[in-house]
Amino acid sequence: MRAAVIPAAPALAPRRATLAWAPALTVAAFVVPIGAGLAGTVAPAFGYLPAIGGNEWTLAPWRSLFAYPGFASSLKSTLVTALLATLGALAIALGSCAYLHGTRLQRRIGASIAPLLAMPHAALAIGFAFLILPSGWIARVVSPWLTGWTVPLDVLTVGHPSGLPIVGSLLLKEVPYLMLMTLGALNQVPADAHTRIAQSLGYGRVAAWFKVVLPQVYPQIRLSVYAVLSYSLSVVDVALILGPSNPPTLAVLAVRWFADPDTSRYFLGAAAAALLFALVGVAIAAWAVAEKVLAYLGRRWIERGTRAPYVSPAAATATATLLAMLALAAATIAGLALWSFAQTWRFPAALPDGLTLGNWQRQSRSLLDPALTTLGVGLAATLVALALTLACLEHEAHLSAARSARARGAQVLWLIYLPLLVPQVAFLFGTQVLLVRLGFDATLAAVIWAHLIFVLPYMFLSLADPWRAFDARYTRSALALGSPPWRVFVRVKVPILLKPLLIACAVGFAVSVGQYLPTLFAGSGRVATLTTEAVTLSAGADRRVIGTWALLQAVLPWFGYLLAALVPAALYTRRRALNP
Amino acid sequence: MKRDQPPAIGVAAEPLGLRGVTLAIGARALFPPLDLVIAGGECVTIMGPSGCGKSTLLNHIAGTLDPAFSASGSVGIGAQPLDGLPPEQRHVGILFQDDLLFPHLSVGGNLAFALPAHVRGRAARRARIESALLEAELPGFAARDPATLSGGQRARVALMRTLLAEPRALLLDEPFNRLDAQLRGDFRSFVIGHARERGLPILLVTHDEADAAAIGGRVIRLG
After folding, report:
1. Which of B92, B109, B119 lies closest to A299 in CB terms?
2. Mean pLDDT of A196-219
3. pLDDT value, residue B4
4. Most Cβ neighbours (<10 Å): which of A39, A187, A310, B190?
């Protein structure tokens, strides 16, 4: 047995040294801009930004922020939408996972939510608006035969002061995200065996899941929940498309002030962004306290021995909600597609009068450049992130013989989640100031770097588990056969892990395509992608025009996933172990 | 007898009966129709090579048969048929090779999870758990993390957990395999002793002849 290990050791020694830079460089790639960006946002919030004449530390920005007429209602809609979206997403995701555990439907739903995850927030929000507007598809389908409406009602749905449309659109994305995270975490615990034991002790399937499986799974999805909370508090593109306009949510307010031609407004924007940063911190801390309280109450509940049959109908309700949401999401995508091919579509017709390629032909000129930019930035960010991720994971693989990789992985996990926990508005302005200083703003490289900050963590999270699960004996036996390490990597490890590798790339590309705020700030508003243009157009263009932009934005990431599915399938048609 | 003792189901325990039970995967039957009645306090051993369907039979009795299999015949305890009942309503206890103690609960928490809710009040529940731990020769272990227990201790907690849920039959899916030879004999007599005391019909699945010889009851060979 030992003989297989021995040849590996000398061969690995030089490589360990060559990859030692990888973790530090990777962490620096996103910690430096976030740290510098935070400092560059918080300082102006206290009046300090010499470039535009802020040389004194003062509380004036805060005073004018609190005195802003819409401040209270902006704060309120920010908090309410974020809390509803996070609580709702968690409840629906966990309820559905509990109810569907071990059923065949679970696998089918697991597969059908992947396209939703790939869809950019902006495209989904636009499609959602097309559904719920007073003149939207839902109203058209039930009019006039049911409602009697021959003209759209004069009410606010999109832009409603409550911010509920934001909640709806966020749920469509965050429920699948939390579900996928939970399903992944379920593989790490003996969920089936424990459920079966609990059933033999008299517990129903759903009660068993909540009392036995959830306490083991939740610690593994905790950071994802915090990421959803932070994102919901600070989301900009969805809030621009669906949220109230006067006053908008806090994040939109900050972006609006940062974009103001009057540079003195920057201080106000910085104060709003810094407040948002603090709000996210407080919200996560409060959530963590609530977790502790619930864990204590939950243990009491578990040890009381109640077989809790009532949780099953609650979980069934969550599952029904999930199914309704999936139908809504499908309608969202179908609506975008219909509008982009619609000849004319008058209210209250349920369908367009005819289909045409005309919208696409008319838009093709203006679509082409932003589409190429989106594609190029996405590919570049993905490739750089892939190189860094692989370097880190390979470095770790060589160390793990000596130390426990899992323990080390847990330590850096917080760091990897950092870009997903810190609200984007809170550091992007500071990053932009820094880029302007360096004369580096509005370049493609700056935009790629800004995307990298968000592409990197998602790719790392996607690739880490399969990479760590790789049976190191393949590497050892290939080395023992006399192959140099680089050859073992290229000829053995990458081919075996090709599928997770390509999926990670698809995830990274999808993340890049969806980035709105980083593109806006790093590009100084001068680098146009499908996302920035679609969000801008959503403010008032013809729905047929918006439809083409949003649909193209949504379709681009799907191509990535399609390739990630088709390439290994085509290469390994006769290799069942690699192509289940 | 103290008031908070379990209802004396042991005395009037009912037999576990299998009538014409077969399991099939696709069109292939795993074994010929099985007829078997196990009286309260009796232990029947099923032996056979791996893949003969012996563990699958236990899953079927417990109600957790993998949907890839199809079953025919009927299973019941006393006069009550179990067919079609969800696992949680069968009151069939099962022990596996792994103890499957829940890692997020203390030893006492694991037992409290199993103890039915009709034992009310914190003091009464705690007393029942303490007496179960005493039976398992683990007094004062309630607050311990199961991960700090030895394999033999964990196995005994797992049995107590199963028994606290007041099962009407006990299924044993090679629960002795993990333990080393010395512990194995001790735990085997511990399990059989406690189950017999409660008058439970016991069905043991194993591929170790020593288990069958030590228990000395009827032996059925599958496959």
Report:
1. B109
2. 95
3. 38
4. B190
